[in-house]
Specification:
The protein is an alpha/beta fold and 364 residues long. The protein has a single domain (3-358), classed as Luciferase-like domain (TIM Barrel, Alpha-Beta Barrel). It is 44% helix and 18% strand. It contains 13 helices and 13 strands. It has helices at residues 19-26, 39-52, 68-75, 95-109, 123-128, 135-152, 189-198, 209-225, 244-256, 260-271, 276-283, 317-330, 342-358, and strands spanning 3-7, 56-59, 83-88, 113-117, 158-161, 166-170, 182-185, 201-205, 231-241, 293-295, 298-299, 312-316, 332-338. An eight-stranded parallel barrel has the order 1-2-3-4-7-8-9-13, surrounded by eight helices. A two-stranded antiparallel sheet has the order 5-6. The longest helix is centred in the middle third of the chain and has 18 residues, at 135-152.
């Protein structure tokens, strides 16, 4: 069985790849259009995901995003069963406090919290939050952070002494029920090591299936050494329409709206990234705009301007369902999808793709 999730655009939304925050907030361009991430619009997206049958929404973190904890807590009462995958940053929060916040969230929401552990990758962003550790050291810190987090949830006072954290009797008043599932992403050996030891779901970005299979094998190996098994998730944009021509026409519209100078600036920045995942995303297209279908129905156009997840499934509803089935055959269970704008594309995926996964495939 698979689990299909949606995305909560807490940096704003729009009909172009660049989104609202970077076009309007960062540049101050008065001509920029889009949808600000006010709570009413975010509630519309969350309620649509809830109504359409998505299991959860992923909520990002970063300078241009509204705070993930506060925003999703405000949306709990606006939804009925939808879960929230809340981004958590080991660089900015003590693990015992995180354990207490998560336990409270589970009680308030009726058990609808999942956590996405974000270790960073953009040095400029990390330093903005006061984090000066280099890439692998961030994962070493996350290893300790997650040890304390799980220890505080255990129901018994937990002692720990490491390089980054030292706690005595870490605990919470009432252990969370259920314990929130932990998502953790990254394409580096350091990420595979931490996922193997702690993650419930190792989260990847949308590479072609043959490349992705290599990454999954590395995480499985590390998990086996720790005596564990780890499930897998993938983060993908989607452009799904009634026909392939309609979908590719929309992809072409998004590409035509991209400023070549903005692409050049973004690619220069991505080339300096220490994130292995970001490097792999950039290598899928190398800044070229003429070879963006890198695998059947897999388009790398989002990665020309956007950091992090840079690929989209493009095609008819049937074709998108086929690609999801292909990723599932590799062992991917969780699919975190998104589209521009998120509200309209949620309906297209929810009404066009999810029924094909339910019947005749029987995957939901």
């Amino acid at each position: 069985m698979i689990r299909v999730h949606w995305f909560l655009p807490t940096s704003g939304d729009g009909r172009e790849v660049i989104g609202w925050a970077h076009s309007k907030v960062a540049t101050g361009d008065p001509r920029a259009v889009g949808r600000a991430p006010d709570i009413d619009y975010l509630a519309e997206v969350a309620q649509a995901a809830d109504r359409l049958g998505f299991e959860a929404v992923l909520t990002p973190t970063g300078t241009w995003c509204e705070d993930a904890w506060i925003t999703t807590a405000a949306l709990v009462r606006a939804t009925r069963r939808l879960k929230f995958i809340v981004a958590i940053r080991p660089d900015s929060l003590a693990p015992t406090l995180a354990a207490q916040m998560a336990a409270t969230y589970q009680r308030v929401s009726g058990g609808r919290l999942l956590l996405n552990v974000v270790n960073g990758g953009d040095d400029e962003e990390q330093r903005r939050f006061g984090d000066w550790l280099e890439h692998d050291r961030r994962y070493a810190r996350a290893d300790e952070f997650l040890s304390v987090l799980r220890g505080a949830w255990s129901g018994e006072p937990f002692d720990f002494k490491g390089e980054f954290y030292r706690v005595a009797g870490a605990t919470v008043g009432r252990a969370p029920d259920p314990v929130p599932g932990l998502f953790l992403g990254g394409a580096s050996p350091a990420a595979a090591e931490v996922s193997g030891r702690h993650a419930d779901v190792h989260l990847t970005w949308g590479e072609p299936p043959p490349l992705l299979a290599e990454q999954l094998a590395a995480v499985r190996e590390r998990a086996a050494l720790a005596g564990r098994t780890v499930r897998f998730g993938i983060r993908l944009h989607v452009i799904a329409r009634d026909t392939p021509d309609e979908a590719w026409t929309e992809a072409g519209r998004l590409l035509a709206a991209m400023d070549p100078q903005a692409i050049a600036v973004a690619q220069q920045r991505f080339a300096q990234s220490v994130s292995v995942g970001q490097q792999r995303m950039a290598a899928l297209h190398n800044g070229r705009t003429d070879r963006l279908e890198i695998y059947p129905n897999l388009w790398a156009g989002f990665g020309l301007l956007r950091r992090h997840a840079g690929t989209a499934l493009v095609g008819s509803y049937e074709q998108v369902a086929e690609r999801i089935e292909e990723y599932h055959a590799l062992g991917v269970e969780h699919f975190i999808l998104s589209g521009q704008p998120h509200l309209e594309e949620a309906y297209r995926v929810g009404e066009g793709v999810l029924p094909l996964l339910l019947r005749p495939r029987g995957m939901l």
